[in-house]
Amino acid sequence: MTSQTQSAKTDSKDRVIIFDTTLRDGEQCPGATMTHEEKLEVAELLDTMGVDVIEAGFPIASEGDFAAVNEIAKRAKNAVICGLSRAAPKDIDRCAEAIKPAKRKRIHTFLSTSPVHMKYKLQKEPHEVYEMVIAQVTRARSHTDDVEWSAEDGTRTEFDFLCRCVEAAIKAGATTINIPDTVGYTTPQEYFDLFKRVRETVSNADKAIFSTHCHNDLGMAVANSLAGVGGGARQIECTVNGIGERAGNAALEEIVMAIKTRNDVFPYVTGIDATMLTRASKLVSAATSFPVQFNKAIVGRNAFAHESGIHQDGMLKNAQTYEIMTPESVGVKQTSLVMGKHSGRHAFVHKLEELGYQLSDNQLQDAFVRFKALADRKKQIYDEDIEALVDEEIATAHDRVKIVSLTVIAGTQGPQQATLTLDIDGKHITTQSSGNGPVDAIFNAIHALVPHEAILELYQVHAVTEGTDAQAEVSVRLAHDGRSFTSRGADPDTLVASAKAYLGALNKMCSRAGRMAGVEKRIHSTDVG
User: Fold this and answer.
1) Same domain, residue pair 200 and 63
2) Non-local CB neighbours of 423 within 8 Å, separated by 6+ positions
């Protein structure tokens, strides 16, 4: 009996071995090929985080695969280093050579046992396959005392034949028996029953650890793996981020956290340091260039993010209202309250407090209304967006002149025109002006409604955040009577931001002068709309 098998039996009857195949099955995912150095980096992290068995590759596949498995075998400090091989003697021997430097090593050899695979893939009769099982395990056992045998397409294999092959493999020296759901076909109850029945039927089943290996074609890989453990398996084969052939494999991070979070239902333990799960996810994603879907369980960007106002309100009162595990438990710094159109007033106030703002009730109400309007126009609201919005709210709180509406006609056929309505001391007045460009037209319209002699010294535009829907922040500086007045305006529409900035500077100038020169006369001589 191998040291790996012994540890599973003596440490705890509920100890589940985590067998990671990211570097073998995961890398077989189309487009997920990793460089030699990337494989070494991933293997080192898997070893550090407590993975029991690392399937480092398929040594016979290429010289590169052999070199990676061999180097990982040299460097591994804790994990068993495993290589995959088919039933062919050359495969097994090459695998043995690759893993030879490892302190703890395993040969994983497999053979198809389902009727469809035997007929079309192997083109062999069941009795021939049975003899091959014995031969391949015997040869692998001559190289190492830790041998895993897999019945490829095990969930579609005839039960009696599966039991015969399993019994023969154990008798020949296999210490781990894997019954994979190669094509993601089974269901949790079926998989549970399969392991239970095989272990009850095979006479020497107690001499080996049974293993699950589930693909996600029907979206049940994690559920099936856990069901298999319920049926008596004590090893789960999985990959980081669930990458792998077709729809992928059971996700390591989901397996680990399901056991940890619902230990009342899954009373098992693993040796994984869960706080390293997010780091592992990011590393594998970067190495394979496979992005993690935003709503991916455990490690997705939105796994601990909340935008709904109802959810945010609950989270602020008690995190357990909407989170069944803490973000810190998987290596995420903190919960994220994402500000968007679904966010409520409570979350908005909390975000303002985080950013260091304290507004009056009226300012808060106005800022919240403007925030909701911005969120309807912009997919993602960043802290910088909120800062720009609130800074403008504070700066314009006492302004006598405010923008009500703005329509601009621009394009290659000039001159450009701007139709502008302003609120001046609570009254609305409107004008239309043209100019040499849309910004010039807007500023001319403002000058028509609020006559002044100020000179424009600065007009500057930059994006508050990234993306084509980013808010534009415009800075304007007006000079009058030897003084300069600067203001900023922010809006997803650059032209609106320009009008806000110009009006902000104008309000400062007029406030400094003590009265709105010419404005009173303009208001009373213009029809109010």
Assistant:
1) yes
2) 401, 402, 403, 404
